[in-house]
Amino acid sequence: xxxxxxxxxxxxxxxxxSNAHVCVADDRIVAVTTEQPSADVPQHNCHGHRLLxxxxxxxxxxxxxxxxAQYPDEESLSLLAAANRKGGTAACLATIPTFHMEVILxxxxxxxxxxxxxxxxxxxxxxxxxxxxxxxxxxHVAEWVTVPTVQQIAEILEAADGCLKMITVAPECCSxxxxxxxxxxGVIISAGHSNASYTQAQQFSRRGVQTVxxxxxxxxxxxxxxxxxxxxxxxxxxxxxxxxPDGIHVDYGMIRMAKQLMGERLFFITDAVTDxxxxxxQHVLNGDHYALPNGTLSGSAISMLQAVRxxxxxxxxxxxxxxxxxxxxxxxxxxxx
Length: 337
Fold this sequence. Notes:
Blueprint: E1 2-11, E2 16-25, E3 28-33, E4 43-45, E5 50-51, E6 55-60, E7 62-63, E8 66-67, H1 74-86, E9 89-96, H2 101-116, E10 122-128, H3 150-160, E11 164-169, H4 176-184, E12 188-191, H5 198-201, E13 211-212, H6 228-235, E14 240-243, H7 252-262, E15 266-268, E16 284-286, E17 289-291, E18 297-300, H8 304-315, H9 319-325, H10 328-335
Helix pairs in contact: 2-3, 3-4, 8-9
């Protein structure tokens, strides 16, 4: 059924339209116009409020008190989608950290089943690990970190059946054959939790890597003698990168610098978790972030709307650009593959 949202300030991604109207049919935007719609169609008057493009989160682990990796089922995905909507996120990549193969395959099958039933709010699966470098594991469980085999990748791809959208790996731990398999399957390869040198990172995009996971976190650091992964990312126009704008994972000044160097290649993620008091990933809310019981930083507590606010207030972005970092730029990455 068709209905209209009228009298709104609408941000198209490039400009603001005043006194504009949106036509929605079957939950899809089919028209944006400044011409008044016919009075005989259902309308909701927005009274001048702002309408923004859908916010997209490419890395989030759960919502509503149900961590997806701990409960890899459709209920977790439904609760995640509902929690996301409250924070401005229309769609996300449901993410699981390093785990054993049984949970990885269960998660892939759960996303596949959920998406086959409509997949509201879920764009696919983001597998962060277990194919990472153990020295850069962060809050990930060390015993499950492993070097990927062709057989493992084949199993995961079969279980996901097209729903594995992104995988975070340490490229220096992956063979070219494994990376080519992922490329051929249309999976976005992201470098993260990586101990790669600057020289190794300069080869990322040539090996099929398209983006980098949570820039500055869990990677070789930017140093004047050993530049690490960040400098290679700054220099490579073919690489995008996500960043967590909570002021805890990364200082806002570092994000400001990265933005000046990368422009539209940098985008926001929340890296958010939810309360979990059982299993290997027990996330405890510690003020404005989550930590493991041993105090290790394990995830953010921000929403994508808060990420946008932080971009404006703390990083110094214009409202338009901060919105694009949470919508247009991640959408380019996720929907172009």
